[in-house]
Amino acid sequence: MPPSPRVAPVHRRAPGFVGSTLAIARKDTLIELRSRSVILSALAFAVLAITIFFFAWDPTAVASIDLAPGVLWVIFTFSGLLGLHRSFGVEQPTRAMDALLAAPVDREAIYLGKLIANLAFVMVVQAISLPAVALLYNVPIGGYLWPLIGVVLLASVGLVAVGTLFSSMAVSTRLAELLLPLLALPFFVPVILPAAQATARLMNGRAVSEVSGYLSILAAFDVVFLVVCTLLYPYTLEQ
Amino acid sequence: MTELSIQATDLVRNFGTRRAVNGVSLTLVPGDCLALFGPNGAGKTTLLRMLGGLLRPTSGSAAIEGIPLPGSADVRARVGLVSHQTMLYDALTARENVEFSARMYGVQDARKATDEVLARLGAASFADVRVRSLSRGMQQRVSVARAIVHSPSVLLADEPFTGLDAAGASALTGMLAGLRDSGATIIIVTHNLDEALALCTAAAIMREGRFVRLDRAPIPAREEYTALYRELSVDAA
After folding, report:
1. What is the span of the domain harbouring residue A226?
2. How many helices (H) and strands (E) does chain B have?
3. Residues A210, B216: Cα–Cα separation, whole Å
4. Are the C-beta atoms of residues A47 and A126 closer than 8 Å to each other?
5. Contact B35, B200 (CB under 8 A)
6. Strands B33-37 and B185-189, bridge-based pairing
7. Is residue A161 assigned to a domain?
8. Measuring CA to CA, which of A215, B67, B85, B126 is 20 to 30 A from A49?
9. What is the ipTM of this complex?
10. Is B129 on the interface with A (CB under 8 A)?
11. Which of A30, A95, A99 sits opposite B92 (nearest CB)?
């Protein structure tokens, strides 16, 4: 047997909550930047859906301004689900989640790290699909771009908060692809409804003050979903 | 009185109606190295997952360095875990995987600790290669590096020799001996009697969720132990 040099101890201190959260978010982002599996599949879905809606649309029956908000939120919702499904999937093949759970990291930090990475992916897809819808449906969004971005951002936080939690619950089941939308979509409704309403009003040229109520509702749901999902996440890991 | 590193009392774990671990009791002190043998389905991995805090026992109790399991972040920081799955991210390089683990354990100079442990395990030459491009044996070295980068005082290793060639097995044995001699407590689940018996200070054979034999140093000679193991395993089959 080879000689067995004593192993010098390394200096450790408890990893901080914020540091762990950001390290997990960075790790997931790096993996996605290299594999591009989430963004490519979500973008492919978004482009296909926009195209199909466009060719199925009869401009003489429905004005583009009435159709565009619905198209936008259908695309945001389902492309987001595609991405969220992969969120915990990166840990599955080699059981890397076991290594994360064995580490002295708060479970809540794992959830929030995943959430931040998911939010980044969803926003990339939204940043591409929003101008694509505006262009194809000839909806000028320049006049109310910032309020619209505010609506999209607030809604995305709520959707990703719920979706990340359910992705964690669904990932180890046999029917994960089916289970995630079944679990998440009912909880998406309180977010999508005010978001779609606010988007429609902005696209119809209403004053920003008219959508402030919807923004407040979205912000309230964000807070509730963020807090509740963060607190519930550790219970989804119990074995 | 020597402080106990690992203490398990009547550990039981059920999966539905099946009892995977059935009343295991165990005490190990710093510097102990236990080789855990047994046929497939004997409950070895389940026992290790409970001691690693990944599974809650159905009944019984366990503690690492006096802290009850499944414990807080404090107890998890003391344990290193090697699984027969690599627990690595395919899209990241060997160095990125180990450094990420070092950061999760709060290692202060994560880069330096990563480079050192990769060098010790003979993995420095492929440190910047993505894990998906590495052979199974190379991945296993990285997996072990990931588990010990924070110098755990308790190492739970499930099939750590999987996929390793002779040089890799030798490097790992040397590394584990170094950990043991530094006072770490090690449990190795393996079918590799040669490596494990050479390294360990105690050996146990598990069957149907129980220890059917537990030897502390001096462990019977290799030939004698192999015969015992075969006899007990064949009985199980």
Report:
1. 17-236
2. 8, 10
3. 77
4. no
5. yes
6. parallel
7. yes
8. A215
9. 0.87
10. no
11. A30
- Residue A44 in any domain: the answer is yes
Confidence (pLDDT) at A118: 93
CA-wise closest residue to A115 among A36, A5, A225 = A225
Cα–Cα dist B92/B97, whole Å? 6
Determine the residue type at B234.
V
Provide, as residue numbers in chain B, all residues whose Cβ is less than 8 Å from the Cβ of A27: 89, 92, 96, 100
pLDDT score of A2: 44
A1, A11, A12: best mutation site toward chain B, by most B Cβ within 10 Å? A12
3-state secondary structure of A101: helix
pTM of the model: 0.89
Which residue of A10, A27, A108 is the best one to mutate when testing the B interface, meaning the one whose CB has the most B CBs within 10 A? A10
DSSP H/E element including B112 = helix B110-120
Which spans in A88-141 are helix H? 96-102, 107-136
Interface residue B15 vs chain A (CB under 8 A): no
Q: What is the CA radius of gyration of chain B?
A: 17
Q: Which of B6, B51, B1, B50 lies closest to B184, judged by CA?
A: B6
Spell out the domains of chain B, with CATH numbers in brackets: 6-236 (3.40.50.300)
Give the number of other CB atoms < 10 A from CB of residue A224.
13
Rounded distance between C-alpha atoms, residue B36 and residue B38, angstroms: 7
Ranges of beta strands (E only) in B84-201 are 154-158, 185-189
Q: Is B203:B225 a contact under the CB 8 Å cutoff?
A: yes
Predicted pLDDT at A13: 72
Could you tell me if residue B19 is left (phi over 0), alpha (psi between -120 and 50 degrees) or otherwise beta? beta
Verify whether the Cβ–Cβ distance A1 to B199 is below 8 Å.
Answer: yes
Query: For the residues of B55-102, what is the DSSP string, one character each?
Result: S--SEEEEEETTEESS--HHHHTTEEEE-SS----TTSBHHHHHHHHH
pLDDT tens-digit map of A177-191? 888 889 999 999 999
Buried b (16+ CB within 10 A) or exposed e, A123-140: bbbbeebbebbbebbebe
What proportion of chain A, given as a percentage, has pLDDT over 90?
58
Structure tokens at B19: 């009892």
Is residue B236 pLDDT above 80, yes or no? Answer: no
